[in-house]
Design a protein that fits this description.
Helix content is 19%, strand content 38%. It is α/β, with parallel strands linked by helices.
Length: 118
């Protein structure tokens, strides 16, 4: 092992709004907050998901290679239908893609993520 994961950092135009979306999606709490930067996680000192403000976000357009996703988050769920209904209520957008075991969405800033059947 070379190192340990500290954080996944996501660029966005509104860190407060996107952190709130992922707090609800992942059941995490805010563990750090400063101007233009918010961290959520399961506790201080544990790996976190961080949101940093950028002035101009170039949104990925999955699966368009001219606007690549570069990375995405997979979220385990017990029920794809219930998970889909919940993320749509939070402001996610369905990309009408996937299989019987996963579905593809974008968060409110346009970053793709998948709900994956556990």
């Amino acid at each position: 092992m070379i190192g340990k994961l500290r954080a996944l950092v996501i660029d966005c135009e509104d860190p407060d709004a996107l952190a709130g979306f992922y707090q609800e999606l992942l059941g995490m709490a805010r563990v750090h907050e400063e101007d233009g930067f918010i961290s959520i996680g399961d506790g201080a000192g544990l790996p976190s998901v961080d949101f940093q403000r950028v002035d101009r976000l170039v949104r990925p357009q999955w699966p368009d290679a001219d606007h690549p996703q570069q990375m995405h988050v997979d979220v385990l769920v017990d029920d794809l239908d219930a998970g889909e209904a919940a993320v749509l209520r939070l402001g996610a957008t369905s990309l009408d893609a996937g299989t019987e075991t996963f579905r593809v969405f974008t968060d409110p800033s346009g970053h793709p993520f998948c709900l994956v059947l556990s």
